[in-house]
Amino acid sequence: MDQILKVIHDALGINETHLLTNKLRMHLQPPLEKLQVVDVDCGGRPFILIHSAAKAWLEMKNAAALEGIELLPFSGFRSYVYQKNLIEQRLKEGRELENILTHVAIPGFSEHHSGRAIDIHEPGKPSLEEAFELSESFKWLQKNASRFNFRMSYPKDNPHGIIYEPWHWFYTGS
Length: 174
Hints:
This protein is an alpha+beta fold. It is 33% helix and 18% strand. The chain contains 6 helices and 6 strands. The strands form 2 sheets. It has a 4-stranded antiparallel beta sheet with strand order 3-4-6-5, with helices on one face. Strands 1-2 form a two-stranded antiparallel sheet. A hairpin with a 5-residue loop joins strand 1 (35-40) and strand 2 (46-50). The longest helix is centred in the middle third of the chain and has 16 residues, at 51-66.
């Protein structure tokens, strides 16, 4: 494992047991030249993906728009350090690490590190909530995302130990 990940894991209190019981696969950060700013997320920040996922995202977003569906990016590429900060924030809120790790992947194991994962938001609706499954965006994604090589990573009762995330989609193309 990368030395930076060991330092991050130690700082978060992620131990060998956490790593051994983790059901997610490792995702390495791509080199910077493989990443591109493809959009602006719903918070006004750069939305970054690898080149092939960026192209597929824009094609999917445009196809949805032609049918009156607005797909908004909430989160794309995340560094290991960004992932660490997400966990630290929840620890400061008093949440238990074991509970956090059912909502946020251990740094090094988030699909967002690959630059292929997208959290999608629908305008005017709460972000990153299970209720996204009731949205027109979700219904459209269920019918059409596979045409653009995207799949929902964490369906209900998934084997990965992560909560149901109807907003989280992963690019499977090359």
